[in-house]
Design goal:
Elements: E1 11-16, E2 25-31, E3 35-38, H1 45-57, E4 67-69, H2 75-78, H3 81-87, E5 91-94, H4 99-102, H5 106-122, H6 131-143, E6 151-152, E7 165-169, E8 178-182, E9 187-191, H7 217-226, E10 235-238, H8 247-269, H9 276-283, H10 292-308, E11 312-317, E12 320-325, H11 327-331
Parallel strand pairs: 3-4, 4-5, 5-6, 9-10
Antiparallel strand pairs: 1-2, 2-3, 7-8, 8-9, 11-12
Helix pairs in contact: 8-10, 9-10
This protein binds zinc ion (ZN).
Length: 332
């Protein structure tokens, strides 16, 4: 019998370092019939050493872990799977949309590159920023894993060996994103869906194979936030930072902040039509050079939101998008 079955079952938090500005990632060890890790960390020697040290303090070695549930595919959450797999016969569980990322599907990555090159052009992004595109993929090769899902999870699934936990699909921050919900104490393990100290970015992604359109990630994200409100969650254990205690007020604040940003874009467009990149520069003058990928996602997401409300029109001229405030605004 595993040692933890003789004592109180628990959720243990580990903080694993990442090389990214977001800081350490929180991973959670759940002691139940199976020993489950929620997310892993990035693939780096430092992350592996810190993880093993904290695991040892909790009374375990990597070989004790039965399964890893991924909240989403990002390398700071999934990369360490490669090291874990060397020491343990772990099962990997997650949404099917993790698979092409965590297995580094070459055709999927090639489509992604082509999609972003086209999007950069359509957004009017200057040529000097194009090498930035390769940097996105470099980080995946350096810190990401190369593995495969053993079990595909979907909305409403109950988790094997983790009594009372249920999967909720929450696309937005990532297309592969899920959260884990425990009804008895209204607790959520939230991945990067809701963070206390920073707003989560609804990251632009290419369409998956067989899908024609890119997902409107901010619209998805808002829907995925809104659907948590009726659960009246008591706490969220997040992927980064401190736990969230006042959940619904934070969800409402995040939605409000998005409305405000959309209003700021609408105000910028009052002076006349602009390219996407021009809007990026106006909204994030000190950030767009350093963090173009995040700035692009933020801007495109809010333009999608305005377009969905009929407040912005987009026209395409020679493959470049031109955004303008809706006619109603211009007449007023
Ligand atoms: Zn993430």
């Amino acid at each position: 019998m595993k040692s933890y079955l003789q004592r109180a079952r628990d959720i243990i938090t580990f903080k694993v370092p990442t090389p990214f500005p977001v800081g350490p990632v929180n991973v959670y060890l759940i002691e139940d019939d199976l020993l489950t890790l929620i997310d892993a960390g990035p693939k780096s020697e430092e992350a592996w050493a810190v993880f093993k040290h904290q695991l040892k303090d909790a009374g375990y070695v990597p070989a004790d872990i039965d399964q890893v549930v991924l909240t989403h595919h990002h390398v700071d959450h999934a990369g360490l799977l490669d090291y874990l797999a060397q020491e343990s016969d772990i099962k990997v569980l997650g949404h099917w949309r993790n698979e092409p990322w965590i297995s580094r599907n070459p055709a999927f990555f090639e489509n992604g590159r082509a999609f972003f090159a086209k999007l950069y052009r359509a957004f009017g992004i200057e040529e000097r920023f194009f090498p930035y595109l390769e940097k996105m993929f470099d980080s995946i090769y350096r810190y990401g894993c190369q593995t495969s899902l053993d079990v595909v999870l979907k909305d409403g699934d109950h988790l094997r060996g983790m009594a009372g936990w249920q999967v909720i699909e929450t696309p937005g921050h990532a297309q592969s994103h899920i959260v884990l919900y425990r009804e008895r104490d209204r607790l959520l393990i939230g991945g990067d869906h809701l963070l206390a100290h920073i707003s989560s970015n609804a990251i632009t992604e290419a369409p998956y194979p067989g899908e024609a359109e890119r997902p409107k990630t901010l619209l998805q994200y808002r829907e995925s936030l809104t659907k948590l409100l009726p659960l009246k969650l008591s706490r969220v254990l997040p992927g980064h930072g401190e736990e969230v205690a006042h959940v619904n007020p934070l969800i409402n604040r995040r939605l409000h902040e998005q409305d405000e940003r959309a209003s700021a874009i609408r105000a910028v467009l009052k002076s006349g039509p602009l390219s996407g990149f021009d809007i990026c520069k106006r909204l994030f003058p000190s950030k767009y050079e350093r963090e173009l990928a995040l700035v692009l996602s933020e801007t495109l997401g809010h333009l999608d939101l305005l377009e969905s409300m009929g407040e912005v029109e987009v026209t395409e001229v020679n493959g470049v998008y031109c955004y303008s405030a809706d006619g109603r605004d211009q007449k007023s």
